[in-house]
Amino acid sequence: MPNIDFKQLFHRLTSPYMIIDRQYRYVAVNPAYERAVMRSLEEVEGLSLFDVFPNEGESGQALRASFERVFATGETDTIAYIPYDIPRPASQGGGMEKRYWTAVHVPLTDDDGTIAYLLQNTVDVTDVVRLREAASLPYRSYSPETQLVERAREAESAHRSLLAESAEFRRMFEQAPGFIAVLVGADHIFTFANDSYTRLIGGRQVIGKAVSEALPEVAGQGFIEMLDHVYSTGETRGGEGTRILLQTPNGELQERYLDFSYDAVRNLDGEITGVFVQGMDRTEAVKTLKHQRLLLDELNHRVKNTLATVQSIAAQTLRAAPDLATARKDFEGRLVALSKAHNLLSQTAWDSTHMASLVGHELSHYDGTRIAASGPAVVLNPKATIAVAMVLHELSTNAAKYGALSGEEGRLDLSWRVDETDGELRVDWIESGGPVVTAPSRSGFGSRMMSLVMRGELNGAFETRYEPHGFACMLTIPYSSYGRIKHVD
Amino acid sequence: MSTDLSSELQGLSVFVVEDEALVALNLEDMLIDLGCIIVGPAMRVAKAREMLADALQADVAILDVNVAGELVFPVAEELATKGIPIIFATGYGQAGLPEAWHGNTILQKPYTMDDVSGSLAKAVRRS
Predict the structure, then answer these.
(1) Strand locations in B1-127, DSSP E?
(2) CATH (one of 3.40.50.300, 3.90.180.10, 3.10.350.10, 3.30.450.20) for A6-124
(3) Would B20 be classed as within a structural domain?
(4) Of the residues A92, A213, A342, A363, which has the maximum number of CB atoms within 10 A of its CB?
(5) B37: domain CATH number?
(6) C-alpha–C-alpha distance, residues A272 and A275, integer Å
(7) Nearest neighbour of A456 by CB, restricted to B43, B66, B91
(8) CATH 3.30.43.10 fits domain A287-482
(9) pLDDT higher than threshold 50 for residue A184
(10) Distance from B46 to chain A by nearest Cα, in Å?
């Protein structure tokens, strides 16, 4: 290479050149530049361009944006046309001077390859623009020079609006609530994936990768076949509430439900170049719906069971009662007993009840001073709750009709305990001080029901004794029948 | 109800699996009124299987589907092997049954005595 003095070259160039650093501070300017902007190097060196030539308007923003692009991308950026007024030095009368420019911005790297400086070559096209303005009034005949500037101006404005528009669209797509991705080519290579899409796939970086490579777990789930179809035929494909298994950041497969569509992307010639993917993650909605259906089924089952129970109570009561008035009273009493048990269960979302509160509720309308009820804290599951409630109701009704609670004097002692070894619950119902009782000649609904509930339903025992001092009854329920852990229907 | 139906069901032995005491009680009464002989009721799946293993004799079975939190189908399979016709009593209707059992008679809870006699006759005739 011949020994050229590049500093001299810079100085001798007839076109204006200047160099700024990353803070847009002047590092060097050539004499052509000094003349163009009416400032000497001494006046501007070390100062930011925007301090020397402030411009808060569109042009200032456009210039700044161009600088930013060059420093960010390392690529040359051209502003074909930019109006940029500069302050006239006081020696030349002061005030602002209207100027039009074209500018080319070139990145300059330092020794370690990072972009440290920006070289600007700017040309003042004010005179040409003035010619154009003059030419437009009254005749629209442009000289070749003005036509060139006109084209530059148009190209620049088109370029700027495209840039602004595509940046705007990109921002909108990025932030769209639905997921969006753009795939290119027959292998479906990601060229765009918005925030929602990235969240859906567990934050994986997919740009530049084929779907089968970026999301390997999707293979075999039918989605790639759909993409192939859309790419080869141009037909839209999609789904509603479609199940997909996607990998989470910790490597597990997670079930998601998606509403989505795949649409062909075409170029200006109408050829398919890729697939536009868009959709919504409907997982939460689908889960809620499933849960609701489950609840409805469960509710339906419970209602049917309860109706069957009520039907049975009605049939049995009508069958046993001597007259309609008694039947009605007995039926209502049994319904209320059932309803109280349901109330208690509702308080815990049908989970369980405490023995003590169940006893309290079922015996609440009797004289509390004549009843002693005691026992440890015992939790009953729903099935045991209903069963014990019905039994307590029958026992207390009988006591009020024929037993210790029928007269003025009698007492009821109700106690329960839990066997320490096997958890069996034992309830003792002991009446005293009432009229002399004798075993009934035939077993009515009450005793049949209690016996079936205790022995059959709860797999426990039910023993009655008619003793001189009054009626007594002992119930036992194994832990497996009343314990909370067991699933109950 | 026709007299033919009553005579048809006279002396029929019915195996009952039902975990709700009150429902079982009502079904017992209905079956007695229809002149049937009750086998059971078994109120647990385990109990029902025990009775089956113990050479249970029955002309027909009425099975609650959800028995104290357990599904009754293992019992149904054993009954089917023995050739005993099955009626499923359920609050869910047919939707609560696996497809394999869709051909069976369903007694939708709550049911009336006519429902019971009708489904018994249907199940017995079908076998």
Answers:
(1) 13-17, 37-42, 60-64, 66-67, 70-71, 86-90, 105-108
(2) 3.30.450.20
(3) yes
(4) A363
(5) 3.40.50.2300
(6) 8
(7) B43
(8) no
(9) yes
(10) 11
